[in-house]
């Protein structure tokens, strides 16, 4: 499994409860660009509109040998999920504070996949508490 992009920043900003794997609807040039490392998911998140899952703010650079003239790097892209999964995610994301965050883009069996995580945003004091706990564990290891 080759990982093309990871969202490390999200691990500090959210507390995750569940992970979901989904396919992405892409054009041929977008697939080539992703395989060349031209993808960023730092601010990417998924929403559900009209019983379809859509990823937003996912930046895929234009493939340099492509002839697309009106290419939009941050256009919304459809995610491939089963209807049962989408209906379950509608219920989970309707709870206040829950959101679907893009965690990583990778290749599996020749297909480009994205891992989404159901996360709840952390407050600043929670982030500081986590950092102090991490530092204490590190100090305990050294002694």
Describe the structure.
This protein is α+β, with helices and mostly antiparallel strands and 143 residues long. It has one domain (2-142): Small Protein B, Chain: A (Beta Barrel), CATH 2.40.280.10. 30% of the residues lie in helices and 39% in strands. The protein has four helices and nine strands. It has helices at 9-13, 28-35, 83-93, 124-142; strands at residues 2-6, 14-24, 39-40, 45-49, 52-56, 59-60, 77-80, 98-108, 111-121. The strands form two sheets. It has a six-stranded antiparallel β-barrel. β8 (98-108) and β9 (111-121) form a beta hairpin. The model has no long low-confidence stretch (mean pLDDT 88).
Question: What would a concise description of this structure say?
Answer:
Helix content is 30%, strand content 39%. It is α+β, with helices and mostly antiparallel strands.
């Amino acid at each position: 499994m080759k990982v093309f992009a990871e969202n490390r920043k999200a691990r500090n900003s959210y507390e995750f409860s569940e992970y979901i794997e989904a396919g992405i609807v892409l054009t041929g040039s977008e697939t080539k660009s992703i395989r060349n490392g031209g993808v960023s998911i730092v601010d990417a998140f998924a929403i559900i509109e009209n019983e379809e899952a859509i990823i937003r703010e996912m930046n895929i650079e234009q493939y340099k040998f492509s002839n697309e003239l009106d290419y939009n790097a941050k256009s919304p892209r459809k995610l491939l999920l089963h209807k049962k999964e989408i209906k379950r995610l509608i219920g989970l994301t309707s709870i206040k504070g829950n959101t679907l965050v893009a965690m990583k883009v990778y290749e599996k069996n020749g297909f480009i996949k994205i891992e989404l995580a159901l996360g709840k945003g952390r407050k600043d004091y929670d982030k500081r508490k986590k950092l102090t706990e991490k530092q204490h564990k590190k100090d305990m290891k050294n002694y």
